[in-house]
Amino acid sequence: MERDQKHFLNWHCNHHSCITPYCRCLILSVCLMIGLIHLAHAQADAMDTFIKFKNQDNVVQLLKPEELNTFSRQTILNIFEVHERRERQYKAYPVQPVLDRIFGQGWRAADEIVFSCKDGYQPSIPVAKFLAYDAYLAVASADGSPFILDNTLQNHEVVELGPVYLVWDNLKFPILLAEGAADMPYQIIGIELAAFATRFPGMFPPARVSAEVKRGFLHFRKYCMACHTINGQGGGKAPELNYPISVTEYFKPEYLKRWIDDPASLRYNTTMPALAAEIPEREKVLEEIIAYLTAMQRVKHTPPAKNSKK
Ligand code: HEC
Description:
By secondary structure, the protein is an alpha+beta fold. The chain has helices at residues 2-17, 21-47, 95-103, 127-132, 196-199, 211-223, 247-250, 253-261, 282-295; strands at residues 51-55, 58-63, 75-81, 86-94, 112-117, 124-126, 135-141, 148-151, 157-160, 165-168, 188-194, 229-230, 233-234.
């Protein structure tokens, strides 16, 4: 064994000695060039990031984050940053004037707004919420510090917020604090007006189910589908939960409940956040979500092929 190691070292040294200064210089230059190319690509990526605005299936506008100032006036917004559990200030644009200018007033009568994010997160937020509360598109930290945050809800993952981050004036409307971080997508690259029933038909529970299952479906839409898919529809940040085998079929019921309540108590270092602690009637919400997932065992559709995903 020892001899083998020596042999290997010898071979390695001999080989090394063949690298003449000329070779070294050449290798260094190539490395430098590769580095420069990477840097140029990274900068081009940042500069080429467009936010795609869609109405149903039609692309209405492609916008760079810095072009938002032609639609709305930038302000400094102070919020309670739910992901970090502290107050923070952002440079941000009010959402309503942006949507008015891009989609026309008609967006106000639409059903939902679906946000697509670089990391696969894809929440579908009712238009009514944007009419009732003040939402903003944040584009930078107000103090010029990096536009990132320490996501305490996802095992302290440090995440980039840009190009655009959706925030709410939760100091003016403290009731929003009861919802956790579900409607605060970061890394937004798509903003789309949609009718939920046509955009996500595969998520609906079977006809004639209990009121409990129906409520569970609404909770699932609000708290889970931004990350997870059901029958291939929903967010692409976390595993599919229904097809081909439902989690309610392979998880022991008591562990499924415990997982949603506190994932870290089951799996070390998991990045799934617990169902937000502030949600009213949390225990009931949890049971209704499981009732919905259980009912979905009877509704299995083959997910659409990957490349046909919208
Ligand atoms: C912010 C994203 C996010 C949200 C929101 C979220 N999850 Fe998850 N979930 C994950 C990730 C990531 C995993 C994989 C975690 C792991 O393996 O450690 C996961 C795993 C799971 C699993 C385990 C699947 C398996 O087979 O291992 C279940 C069940 C689950 N989530 C249910 C839910 C439910 C129900 C909700 C809504 C109350 C929810 N999740 C909300 C990100 C999320």
